[in-house]
Structure prediction request, 146 residues.
Amino acid sequence: MPDALIAFTTRSGDTKKIAETIAEGIRFEGLEAGVVNVNTIKDETPLEGYRAYVFGSPTYHGEMIQPMKTFLFLAEKAGLAGKVGGAFGAFGWSGEAPDRIYQTMKNIFKMDMVGDTLRLKNVILGGGVQMAQEYGRSIARKLKGA
Prediction:
């Protein structure tokens, strides 16, 4: 079983690319990462057994998109307290979704969050590949120290 689960939702594919790049960063540190679209998760069972969880959604009209909202209610039942966590997302203008995911993971799920959120327009612009890989590396380093 992978060490980390990266669960995302996307509309245009940018958030999926960010998720895959975060997973690369985790793997660069010698750990395993699984990447899954939240639409494929129907109950909390697939969330069991990981040491870290990284959730991502794009921001549309100042909000995370509905599949992530639904997923977070499901994830609340998974008993993630104390697990390492991170949040990310793609955005065009405002980028509130990752911050809302992060606050949910930290304050409601009581997870041990890594630094801050990762907010990118996409992985191609402005050093996005390096930033997403470094975010993954920071997740892995936190796991190694945990």
Notes: DSSP finds four helices and eight strands in the chain. The CA atoms of residues 2 and 23 lie 10 Å apart. The mean pLDDT is 92.
